[in-house]
Inverse folding.
């Protein structure tokens, strides 16, 4: 299938938005997942609910809130622009932000589950061998949570590729800047002669999703084998 | 040197343990639920007592009065857990070298020595997932040894192994005891393990310490029998090999009070051995029996006759400076007219060797 320049642009933009949304939200998701899995504090239920909010709210609502908070006049938008020179309103960075927030609960859930299944006795064993809190986290907790990390990354990546409502509300539908795959498909369906183009982009979306699923499945299987303490399949015949 | 004096209440269970032990192997011995694991967890800093003090080699690592609580990573206490707890995502080599990541490791020469000692050379590139139980425990012991510990804690390291593996791992632990100069605290509820490897025994029951002393004293005391059923009770005797009859595969062992013969003694002449004689393997005769298969007939004096329990009585017999126990029926005591002070012959059916070598029947 030969891709037109416009299709390539849409595809490239979507991948870039999805990559950055996952990349930036991953450390936060790990931190939040760890806190939810391990810590007990007053208001934990409320915190948990807030983290999950993007999962249950209409995406348009999330996009609207983002517009209020991160718009150029919004409190955080002004800070970002003034101190870091980052403008997110009506930019592809804003699309990444919207996608990251929509995928955040999925990522946190997967990683949290992984943290919760770790045998904490292994962490105690590590501490008797000289590992402090950070050492235990980096050498035992995080590596053992790898399958959950991969799952979380995939879910949030897929969610980012498919993000529509929050994106179009927050950063609009600007060709080459914020028109990601779903937005482009939507646009074509609104155009009288756009049927074929919409179908082509939809097929690309299907292939992309299949590829992401396949890669993550392979990675998760390999990581799970490692975490169970089995030999790597590669190099053993 | 290890000094422990701690208190902790958890639910309905109260732990109040206090003891002071020196070099060598100290066994924390008692039934499951006696609080042994809580004590080693407190020593390692995994469990925080409500009150008390713990000193390791003159360093106070815990003291509620002085508000000292050295965190676990800084206590330099090697811990071998019941289930090994190897890191599944790391190879055996990486497990052994784990402490190096936190500057608690040892030089490569020491790594090689421990690997040789525990026979781990062929396992280095394996992953823990498909090691046998015995191999896992050997790796766990090596990993703890390679973290520069000043004290090694072994919490029922044989509990999850079958009899054959138990013996194998126990031999490695004996090797460590003899080759590596690190004090060991060994938690166990199994008499045969404790008499085989311990120098000192701390006897625990229901969260309290009942007795502390040399293994042969504590394990031989008839009044202290926790965890050992009516089957295993007996005397522990330190002896020395004085003769090896290769032709009959018989060894003569001298102890304070006489000699014993035993088969299968895997020790050289002059070497010390520790033997255990179960009370149920000792019979009593008033005259020296003739034409009898039993090889060990010891002259002694009845020191004490215990209380009857469902028709069974424990008789304590002194043989020279050594104390034996004999478990016989109350009717036999009556028929033979046994009383304290009476001279008798103790017929020993079986001698098991606890240090070096397998058990022996004579």
């Amino acid at each position: 299938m030969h891709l037109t320049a416009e299709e390539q642009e849409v595809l490239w933009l979507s991948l870039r938005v999805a990559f950055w949304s996952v990349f930036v939200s991953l450390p936060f998701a790990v931190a939040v997942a760890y806190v939810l899995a391990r810590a007990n504090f007053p208001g934990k239920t409320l915190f948990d609910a807030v983290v999950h909010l993007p999962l249950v709210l209409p995406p348009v609502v999330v996009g609207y809130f983002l517009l209020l908070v991160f718009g150029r006049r919004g409190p955080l938008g002004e800070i970002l622009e003034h101190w870091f020179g980052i403008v997110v309103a009506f930019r592809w960075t804003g699309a990444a932000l919207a996608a990251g927030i929509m995928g955040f609960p999925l990522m946190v859930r997967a990683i949290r589950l992984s943290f919760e299944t770790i045998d904490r006795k292994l962490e105690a064993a590590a501490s008797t061998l000289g590992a402090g809190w950070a050492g235990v986290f980096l050498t035992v907790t995080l590596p053992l949570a790898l399958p959950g990390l991969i799952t979380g990354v995939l879910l949030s990546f897929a969610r980012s590729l498919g993000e529509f409502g929050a994106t179009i509300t927050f950063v609009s539908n600007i060709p080459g800047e914020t028109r990601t795959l779903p937005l482009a498909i939507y646009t074509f369906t609104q155009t009288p002669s756009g049927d074929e183009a919409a179908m082509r982009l939809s097929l690309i979306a299907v292939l992309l999703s299949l590829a992401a699923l396949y890669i993550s499945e392979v990675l998760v299987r390999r990581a799970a084998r490692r975490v169970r303490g089995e030999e790597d399949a590669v190099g053993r015949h | 040197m290890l000094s422990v004096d701690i208190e902790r209440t958890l639910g309905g269970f109260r732990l109040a343990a206090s003891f002071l032990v020196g070099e060598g192997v100290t066994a924390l011995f008692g039934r499951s639920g006696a609080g042994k694991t809580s004590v080693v967890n407190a020593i390692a800093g995994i469990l925080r007592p409500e009150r008390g003090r713990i000193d390791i080699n003159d360093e106070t690592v815990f003291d509620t009065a002085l508000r000292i609580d050295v965190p676990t990573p800084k206590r330099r206490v090697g811990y071998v857990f019941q289930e090994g707890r190897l890191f599944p995502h790391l190879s055996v080599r990486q497990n052994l070298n784990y402490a190096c990541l936190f500057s608690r490791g040892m030089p490569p020469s020491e790594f090689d020595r421990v690997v040789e000692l525990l026979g781990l050379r062929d396992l280095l590139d394996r992953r823990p997932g498909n090691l046998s139980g015995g191999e896992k425990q050997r790796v766990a012991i090596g990993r703890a040894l390679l973290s520069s510990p000043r004290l090694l804690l072994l919490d029922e390291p044989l509990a999850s192994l079958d009899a054959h593996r138990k013996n194998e791992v126990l031999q490695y632990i004996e090797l460590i005891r003899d080759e590596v100069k690190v004090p060991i605290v060994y938690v166990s509820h199994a008499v045969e393990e404790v008499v085989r490897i311990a120098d000192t025994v701390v006897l625990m029951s229901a969260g309290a310490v009942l007795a502390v002393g040399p293994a042969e004293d504590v394990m031989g005391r008839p009044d202290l029998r926790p965890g050992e059923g009516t089957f295993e009770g007996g005397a522990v005797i330190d002896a020395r090999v004085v003769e090896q009859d290769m032709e009959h595969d018989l060894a003569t062992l001298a102890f304070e009070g006489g000699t014993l013969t035993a088969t299968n003694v895997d020790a050289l002449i002059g070497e010390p051995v520790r033997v255990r004689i179960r009370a149920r393997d000792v019979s009593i005769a008033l005259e020296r029996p003739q034409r009898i298969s039993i090889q060990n007939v010891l002259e002694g004096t009845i020191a004490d006759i215990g209380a009857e329990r469902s028709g069974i009585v424990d008789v304590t017999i002194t043989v020279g400076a050594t104390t034996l126990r004999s478990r016989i029926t109350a009717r036999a005591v009556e028929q033979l007219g046994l009383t304290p002070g009476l001279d008798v012959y103790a017929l020993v059916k079986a001698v098991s060797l606890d240090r070096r070598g397998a058990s022996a029947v004579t």
Remarks:
- Chain A touches chain B at residues 119, 121-122, 124-132, 135, 139-140, 143-144, 146, 226-231 (CB under 8 Å).
- Chain A is about 75% helix and 0% strand.
- Chain A has one domain: 5-227.
